[in-house]
Design brief:
With 176 residues, the chain is α+β, with helices and mostly antiparallel strands. It has 8 helices and 4 strands.
Length: 176
């Protein structure tokens, strides 16, 4: 994430908080991001110096004017005006992080050797929520090279409970 995206997202978030529109703006930003992801030519259009700013902003209004709140629309136009529209996706991620922080929601990345069952996910979520005191959303993936166990990354801390890590520790002890 860039510092610029963080600044823009923070400004939008503060304005949204003043109006109590934090979640509505998040939904709008996600909708716009999905549309831009499905239609990359729109990003090219919005960032093209060969098209006048007025035309680009009118196109933003034509596409999104009836679909998203005015504040989100103005945000898109501002990014376009300042030549920062390519930072939009990073702005969305930053905004999402601010919203989660406000709601005491954090993300935890979990990597396991095999897919976790629903019961394992529920138990892990409960333990992480107890440890952090916040609501935890898990992003689970698999890596067969772990052999067993899990690696959890949450709030900048890595908890490595993988069998591969434990075997490496045993090897370190034996080599001393």
């Amino acid at each position: 994430m860039t510092e610029i995206a963080k600044e823009y997202a923070e400004a939008l978030f503060l304005l949204a908080c003043e109006e109590g529109e934090e979640k509505e703006i998040m939904t709008a930003l996600e909708d716009v991001a999905a549309l831009l992801g499905d239609n990359p030519e729109l990003m090219e259009l919005f960032s093209s110096p060969g098209i006048s700013l007025k035309e680009r902003q009118e196109t933003i209004v034509a596409i999104f004017g009836d679909r998203i709140p005015k504040r989100a629309l103005s945000f898109l136009q501002l990014l376009c005006e300042k030549g920062r529209i390519r930072s939009f996706e990073s702005c969305v991620e930053e905004y999402r992080g601010l919203l989660r922080l406000r709601e005491s929601v954090i993300s935890a990345r979990v990597v396991s050797a095999v897919p976790l069952t629903e019961d394992e996910i529920a138990a892990l979520t409960k333990n992480l929520e107890k440890k952090s005191g916040k609501t935890v959303i898990l992003d689970c993936s698999t890596d067969p090279s772990l052999l067993g166990g899990v690696i959890v990354e949450m709030e900048g801390t890595v908890m490595d409970g993988s069998l591969r890590h434990r075997l490496h520790e045993v090897k370190e002890v034996m080599n001393r």
